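Q: What structure does this chain adopt?
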Amino acid sequence: MRQTLEELERQLGEERRRTMLCSGLSIEIEQVACAVMLASEALEKQFQRVAKTPAKEKLQRPFRALDNSALRLARIAENLNDLLACRQAKLAVRPQPVDLAWQYGRIAEQCRQSGKLEGIELEWECPLSDGQYVQADPVWADKVLLNLLSNALRCGTRVCVALKAGEEEYLLTVRDEGTGIEPAVRQHLFEPFVTSQAGQSSGAGLGLYLVHEYCDALGWCLELESGPEGTLVKVRIPRPAPGEAAALNSPQRDLAFCSAQDRRLAQELSVLQ
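A:
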């Protein structure tokens, strides 16, 4: 019994040390990303004053690479923060009315306009009209689609995203036409640090784990099917009862939310380069 307690205390101590290490790393990465972004913005302002020449055109690529690296660092820091919150059961949900058709439609459109989908076709299908609300956290709702989208965009040349309504639920689907996921990997995909894209620039393997945690916190159901013709991810989102739906007020679509959504999208798309 005593040995069991000592072993438990040792494990708890190791977990605390790992948590502190991850937290410290996240802060360090966030600070570096912020410094790189500020330096890049300052250089860009100076750069804009220089007359357009062939030499200037050549220098634009390193500037874009610098911005992209800063975005990837910010993405790593944010994922680490969410990982820590999940491990400590502190993933704070701030529910409010969310118009999924508008919010997800905006992500798809901004993604198309980003200029980072060269050679990739992105389809968005949504027969729903704006103004059909669910009670959810708009940030977590964003991150569900953004993580699924960034995974799918690295797997093939065509990605189909759809949002449809059933009697009791909305169904969000993300389908790619990649080579599929090996069965041995598939059963562990919702665990941290497991990636479906071995040998590629696939990141730390946190995306699907975090999507699973976001969905669990929101009360959504996550399903995955994969075969030689590609992978299909389904997210089942409960529809509010008629009386509850009528009570939901229109969410704010202010500049601050749109800017934050654009930042999250830029971070996810940074893994494509």
